[in-house]
Amino acid sequence: MSLLRSDRASSRRSSRRGSRGRAHGLAVVTWLYVLWSLLPVLVAVRISLNSGKSRSAFQPMSFRWYWTDPTLSVWHDDSLQTALSNTLTLACLTMLIATPVGVAMAIGLHRWRGKVSGAANGLMLLPIVTPEIVFGVALFLVFTQVYKGLPGGITTQLLGHVTFTLSFVVVIIRGRLAAIGTQYEEAARDLGASRFQAIRLVLLPLLGPAIFASLMTVFATSVDDFVISSFLSTGASTETVPIKIYSGARAGSTPALNALATVMLVVTLVAVGLAALAMRMMNRRSSGTDGAAVGLTGMSI
C-alpha cells in the first residue's frame, strides 16, 4: 500500500515537472515571437534618430528629424503635420461614429428573429472577408458615380472608414452578447426596470470590455488604413500618414518619415494606455460598490 502511494506521488511530481517544462518552453517561444515582431519597429525608431539622411544605416543619434531641422523635421514640415492631423482626425471620428452605431446594430441583430436575420448577419461579414483593394475601388466608384454631391476628401474618407470598420464592431459585440446571455437583462426587467433601463444599466456595462476592444480595433484599423484613404484622397491636403510614408518611400525621402511614424506610434500607445487605465479604474469602482455581481452588471440589483 505504501509502495502504491509513493508511486502515485512520484508520478504526480513528474507530471508537474513536465507541465512546468512545457509552460517554460511556451513562454520562451512567445517572448521570441514578441521580440521578433518588435525588431522592425525598433529599427525604424532608431533610424528616425539618425543625424544624417540615411534610412538604411545607423548614424549618430540626434532629434534632427523631430524638431531640430528648420525645414524638414516633423515639427516644421507642414505636409507631415497635415498628414498626422488628418490621420488622428479620421481615426477619432471613425471611432466615435462606428462604435456606437456598431453596438446598436449588434444588439438589434442579436435580437432579430426571422427569415431575413440570417442573411443580414451574413452581410455584416462582407467587409471583413472582401479584399480591401476591392472594397476601396467599390467605395471610390460609389462616391464618384452615385453620391456625387458629397464633398470629397475627409468626408468621403470618414464614410469609407466607418463603412469598413463597422463590421468589426458588430462581430466583437455579438460575440460578447452570445457569452453574456439574457439572464441579467431579464432579471433587471423582473425587478421593475424598463427595457431602456435594462440596456443602459445592465447590458452596456456588461458590454464594457467588448466596447473598449471595439474602440481600440476601430482606432488601430483607421490609423493603419492605406487603401481606402488613398482611393478617397483628393490631394496633399487629405493625405494620411500611411499615404505620406508610401509616397515618400518611393521618392527616396529622409528619416523624417520614420520620425513621423514614431510620433504616430507614441500617440497610439498613449491613447491605448489611457483608455486601458480608464477601463481599469471603472472596473475597480464598480467592483468596489457591491462585490462581484456589481462588477459583472455595473449596477446593484
Descriptive keywords:
301 residues, mainly alpha, MetI-like fold, 2 domains, 13 helices, 77% helix
Approximate strand percentage? under 5%
How many domains? The number is 2
Query: Structural class, from secondary structure content?
Result: mainly alpha
Order of helices and strands: HHHHHHHHHHHHH
Helix count, DSSP H or I runs of 4 or more residues? 13
Extended strand count: 0
- The helical percent reads over 70%
Mean of the pLDDT scores? 81
Explain how this protein is built.
By secondary structure, the protein is an all-alpha fold. It folds into 2 domains: 1-48; 68-297, MetI-like fold, CATH 1.10.3720. Helices cover 77% and strands 0% of the residues. The chain is globular.
